[in-house]
Amino acid sequence: MLKNIAEWTTVREYLRDFFHLTALLSLIAYEKVSEWFGGNRFGLLVLLGGLVFFLIVDILRVELKWRVKPFIWRLFIKKREASQFSSALYFFASIIICLSVFRKDVAYAAIFITAIGDVVAHEVNKRLHYFRLVKKRSTESVFAGLSANLIVGRLFLPWEVAIAMACVASFVEAISKKVDDNFAVPLIAGFVGSLVAWILGL
Question: Among 117, 98, 114, 96, which residue's Cα sits nearest to residue 106?
Fold first, then answer.
């Protein structure tokens, strides 16, 4: 029985990690719609539609105590999210804000860092936790996430900006407990990246 529970928990964790990566598909939808209709405004409206969908489900689930019946939906709800809004809602909101406020390369770097860095850190944290840096993360997972953030950031930005964003994202992700890191990481990292790029003229 305990073995089955452990296996089920592992499956749910993998699926939540996979959700982070599939959320990046929203960027493809954003690009395609913006291209088809000749403006970023239309792409943002599509993403806003996704946000509204998650918002309605969470209002029904949290405020009106509606029991979410679809099996696939329950897979992505964390235990701590049973009485609060889901990470999916916060991540969609952060994506829309990033694309609306930051320049494109910074916005994409912030979003990809959030999605990929968190998955890498989470997977390493499950396997390597000999040295505990903070309660939430091991030292190994923090540095693994930082390395992933650096690589992802460099794909979009110069080293100076990528390093700043990677370090800030890893720090915020490591210490975030009550604040949803899917919301905090891209916004703070994107702000710092924009500031560094402006100061250095990059």
Answer: 98
Note the pLDDT of residue 189.
95
Which residue ranges make up each domain of the chain?
Answer: 2-200
Helices (H), the chain: 2-22, 25-37, 40-58, 71-75, 87-101, 104-112, 118-127, 139-156, 159-175, 181-200
What is the reported pLDDT for 72? Answer: 47
Are 113 and 153 in contact by the 8 Å Cβ rule? The answer is: yes
Residue type present at position 51: L
Residue type present at position 135: K
Taking a C-beta distance cutoff of 8 angstroms, is the pair 74, 16 a contact? no
- Least confident range from 110-114, 136-140, 165-169, 194-198: namely 136-140
Structure token digits, residue 146: 């930082």
Instruction: Please state, in angstroms and rounded to a whole number, the distance separating the CA atoms of residues 134 and 117.
Output: 17
- Buried (b) or exposed (e) across 156-181, using 16+ Cβ within 10 A? bbeeebbbbbbbbbbebbbebeeebb
Q: How far is Cα 66 from Cα 57, in angstroms, rounded to an integer?
A: 9
CB 168 within 8 A of CB 189: yes
Cβ-contact 190, 165 below 8 angstroms: yes
